[in-house]
């Protein structure tokens, strides 16, 4: 009797393929090899050539609306171990770790000690916490790749691993699109934001913005449910925080690249290359120009995984953060911007960045996010009482107003262009929630910091919306304004808050208003067209007062 031939399997283990026997393709060890007590190994996965070519292009293929619009593939799930199989410890992780993924993970983990950002208890390190979730680990590896690229100057040693996890992230996002579950929706948001960050850090700002727009489209597809914010829902809160961090980071990089290009043009260097490789080269140049800037940015990127792998919360709610260090940083950046207004040369514009204010602000925002999850007794010496913030604010509230301030007042976000209307809508919704929750501060001591902080936030919300609606965008691109009515309603809501403060404090004079705003951060009176910046917004508020 002739032996029956077996169907050839391209995905079977190497041992079964060499023996020409059927393989059940079970991983990490197939049952055939386990039964025969043989070594079971699989070929290393290869990133498909078509995917490699697509991901390495500077622009999207014609007709493709989103970088993650590949053929639909099932999302990966955690792997189960075969009974009795002996494995490398990394095989217990929830995702495949091909190429040099293990080395890349080790590199990222050990930079915590090298940059003095590792927690006292290793189990609370965001890199260790990421190993408990497949999507968090994959995002962590993408961040590890950009950290290595910025730290060493290139990604060459880990490019295959980086591309593999990037392609897998895109495929998994495809499998999630259209899913109804809130957990899947939030995981999808975080995954796309990580891809956006990685594209921006490697110089592909166009793709990074496309990913941000994709997140906004994802919010739109989930309708009103995506607008619901449950303060006790940690996943929703983390997704909102990550959106604020990622959008501010990407749009600040875009502005810095534009300003640095103008600076080089002022010195006779013609920018004739707008590729992502050239953008990355310019980033490496300004890394060397800003004193301590690269080290500070590397510290911040090392801590980014805390936005999707936070330590366990001690207590029922996230803590408020101290807004003073954040506001101090904004104040210094405002002084630098005032110098630009007084003498708008390319050198002065570039100094806004090279003075290091935006970079320091990034690290402060990241570390304050982590502190909102920390135990009150953490880092506290014996006999010491827990320190209290000098000026309380929710992290999301202060971060939302920082992003609006950087764009609407300092003009150092998005290269002078308006914020994408859906992104502005999300930021404003986050700020609105914070202003609503802290409304009791309005009735506090007259002229107190807490009362004035509440007004500062409300006024900046009204200012950002007023500036956005004054732009003649609706006439030229009406299809981009489906939420015009919602933005108008939000403007009126923030206007009511401003008028309520005016009624409670009895303040109507702009000079007094300006002094209250300057308690935190506000441009000099003569820095904008010879009159106080924001005076026109206050005048609009007064017209409808009463």
What distinguishing features does this structure have?
disordered N terminus; mainly alpha; 546 residues; two-stranded antiparallel sheet; 22 helices; globular; CD2-Gal4
Descriptive overview:
The chain is an all-alpha fold and about 550 residues long. The protein has a domain at about 10-40: Zn(2)-C6 fungal-type DNA-binding domain (CD2-Gal4, Irregular), CATH 4.10.240.10. About 55% of the residues lie in helices and about 0% in strands. It contains 22 helices and two strands. It has a two-stranded antiparallel sheet. The longest helix is centred in the middle third of the chain and has 33 residues, at about 235-265. The protein is globular, with a radius of gyration of 26 Å. The relative contact order is 0.07. Residues about 1-10, about 55-90, about 375-385 and about 475-480 have low confidence and may be disordered.
At a glance:
The protein is built from 22 helices and two strands. It has 546 residues and is mainly alpha-helical.
């Amino acid at each position: 009797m002739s032996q029956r031939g077996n169907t050839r399997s391209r995905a079977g283990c190497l041992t079964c393929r060499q023996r020409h026997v059927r393989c059940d393709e079970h991983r990490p060890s197939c049952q055939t090899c386990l039964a025969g007590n043989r070594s079971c190994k699989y070929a290393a996965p290869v990133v498909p050539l078509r995917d490699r070519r697509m991901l390495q292009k500077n622009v999207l293929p014609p007709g493709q609306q989103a970088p993650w619009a590949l053929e639909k593939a099932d999302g990966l799930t955690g792997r189960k171990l075969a009974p009795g199989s002996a494995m490398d410890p990394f095989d217990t992780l929830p995702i495949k770790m091909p190429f040099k993924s293990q080395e890349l993970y080790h590199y990222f983990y050990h930079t915590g000690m090298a940059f003095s950002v590792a927690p006292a208890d290793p189990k609370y390190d965001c890199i260790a916490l990421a190993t408990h979730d497949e999507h968090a680990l994959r995002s962590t590896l993408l961040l590890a790749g950009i950290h290595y690229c910025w730290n060493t100057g290139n990604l060459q040693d880990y490019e295959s691993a980086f591309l593999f996890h990037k392609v897998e992230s895109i495929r998994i996002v495809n499998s999630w699109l259209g899913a109804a579950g809130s957990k899947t929706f939030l995981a999808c948001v975080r995954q796309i934001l990580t891809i956006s960050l990685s594209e921006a850090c490697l110089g592909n700002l166009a793709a990074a913005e496309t990913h941000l727009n994709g997140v906004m489209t994802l919010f739109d597809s989930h309708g009103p449910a995506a607008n619901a914010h449950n303060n006790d829902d940690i996943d929703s809160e983390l997704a909102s925080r990550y959106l604020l961090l990622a959008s501010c980071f990407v749009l600040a990089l875009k502005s810095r690249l534009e300003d640095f290009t103008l600076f080089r043009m002022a010195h006779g260097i013609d920018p004739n290359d707008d590729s992502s490789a050239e953008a990355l080269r310019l980033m490496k140049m300004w890394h060397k120009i800003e004193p301590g800037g690269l080290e500070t940015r590397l510290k911040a990127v090392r801590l980014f995984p805390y936005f999707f792998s936070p330590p366990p919360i001690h207590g029922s709610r996230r803590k408020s953060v101290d807004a003073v260090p954040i506001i101090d940083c904004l104040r210094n950046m405002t002084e630098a911007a005032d110098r630009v207004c007084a003498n708008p040369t390319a050198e002065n514009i570039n100094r806004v960045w090279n003075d290091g204010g935006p970079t320091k602000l990034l690290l402060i925002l990241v570390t304050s996010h982590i502190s909102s999850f920390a135990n009150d007794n953490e880092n506290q010496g014996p006999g010491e009482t827990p320190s209290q913030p000098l000026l309380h604010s929710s992290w999301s509230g202060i971060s939302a107003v920082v992003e609006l301030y950087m764009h609407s007042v300092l003009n150092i976000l998005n290269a002078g262009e308006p914020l994408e209307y859906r992104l502005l809508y999300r930021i404003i919704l986050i700020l609105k929630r914070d202003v609503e929750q802290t409304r009791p501060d309005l009735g506090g001591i007259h002229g107190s910091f807490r009362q004035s902080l509440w007004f500062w936030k409300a006024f900046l919300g009204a200012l950002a919306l007023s500036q956005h609606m004054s732009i003649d965008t609706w006439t030229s691109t009406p299809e981009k304004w489906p939420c015009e009515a919602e933005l108008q309603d939000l403007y009126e809501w923030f206007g009511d808050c401003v008028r309520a403060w005016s009624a409670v404090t009895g303040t109507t004079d702009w000079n007094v208003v300006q002094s209250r705003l300057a308690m935190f951060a506000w441009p000099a009176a003569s820095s904008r067209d010879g009159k106080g910046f924001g005076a026109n917004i206050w005048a609009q508020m007064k017209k409808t007062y009463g």
